[in-house]
Design brief:
The protein has about 475 residues and is an alpha/beta fold. It folds into three domains: about 180 residues, Nitrogenase molybdenum iron protein domain (Rossmann fold); about 120 residues, 3-Layer(aba) Sandwich (Rossmann fold), CATH 3.40.50.12380; about 100 residues, Nitrogenase molybdenum iron protein domain (Rossmann fold, 3-Layer(aba) Sandwich). It contains 21 helices and 13 strands. The protein has a five-stranded parallel beta sheet. It has a four-stranded parallel beta sheet with strand order 2-1-3-4, sandwiched between helices. A four-stranded parallel beta sheet has the order 6-5-7-8, with helices on both faces. It is globular. It starts with a helix and ends in a 9-residue tail after the last helix. About 45% of the residues are buried.
Length: about 475
Amino acid sequence: MSASLKAKIAQVFDEPGCEKNQGKSEKERKKGCTKQLSPGAAAGGCAFDGAKIALQPVVDVAHLVHGPIACEGNSWDNRHSASSGSQLYRTAFTTDINELDVIYGGEKRLFKSIREVIEKYDPPAVFVYQTCVTALIGDDLEAVCQRASEKFGKPVIPVNSPGFAGPKNLGNKLGGEALLDYVIGTREPAFTTPCDINIIGEYNLVGELWQVKPLLDALGVRVLSCISGDGRYQEVASAHRAKVNMMVCSKSMINIATKMEQRWGIPYFEGSFYGIGDMSDTLRQIAQLLVRQGAPADLLERTERLIEVEEARAYQRIEQYRARLAGKRVLLITGGVKSWSVVAALQEAGLEIVGTSIKKSTREDKEKIKEIMGDDAHMIDDMTPRQMYQLLKDAKADIMLSGGRSQFVALKARMPWLDINQERHHPYAGYEGMVELVHEIDRALANPVWQQVRIAAPWGDDGETLGAVNATAAPSALAPSPAAIPA
């Protein structure tokens, strides 16, 4: 690992927004908050994957992966991050290095690739991602990007986050560091308003940002930039002129919010777009911070009027589901901000939470879970598929909400399942998203297929072997009588 990458990782781990981290000694702080994965054991994604996930929703930028073609094989389409304009971010660019590049170096190939991308697509900028192989052979990513930027007159941004550096969440932060070092603060917006905000850690999955933006527009609050869902390079580069930052997922990009506060004095808070109550609280916090920063004082009153109308409308629409969902038990296997924000949304629909995972949650996330669920909070640090299956099989939950990797456990247990993670096809943010979430849960629970698959098979309930047939069955039901067998 290069000295510059080690220094950058040390900076990321020195997180001033975390009280627990600041309470450690300098030596312990450099180790980070999570156990670093050994090579070949990057379960859940490597640092390169995390950086690509964090930055690729900047839709008008060319994202070039400097490494073997298999690294670009991390499929972006499974995250459904939507764009309201350019589709360039969905085009896969890679240098596709080979064995000779490993021997002689891949810097010339990288420079030629940058030139080809700029000549063919003319993007406002090129983001270049370092991978394990090119980092190990010593390619100087920063030097090549600087030379290309001078030669072609375009920003060429090095994202130094090879997979062996650590897990996906570290990669999220290293992607954020690239924005802080090379992008944010490099341009000025065409104009500013007293109600400009940045939304950080929001990826516009299935267009969720578009369910929230109309509410902000109604209040006269302008989203100066979203980092990075449906983002534009110009917007991200001028994000330093916002009055307030909203942090959606502190596990991924908290370093951007804290460093923007240090450099430009922009206050930030962590909010949630999931659930009626949390959506209202988020709007209130945005209004309060903006007024504190100089926005018109009537923003607070207008916010309360909007909340009153939207809450009444949302509660009226989910009322038809509450009678059917009351008392239904949910097992929530997710992480990060959703470990507590979705809990509040489900409780508003009358659902009971039997457990929520905290594998990717911060200490603040855990405190919020306790605040919402009280003493009955059942937080699951890590649950094996076998334990998950047993919990569902014992009917301690009526439905499981999780990511796609856990769906087969629910199906094997013959229990309804709903995708709550990034692969989903339905947006759940804002007041409209809450209604959609309740509707989808109701559909999953009421699906008649579950009554069919739970009927005991003729050869036994588990269907594992033909020998599991009920021993009390009459012999004639299993085999012909001796008298019927010809001599």
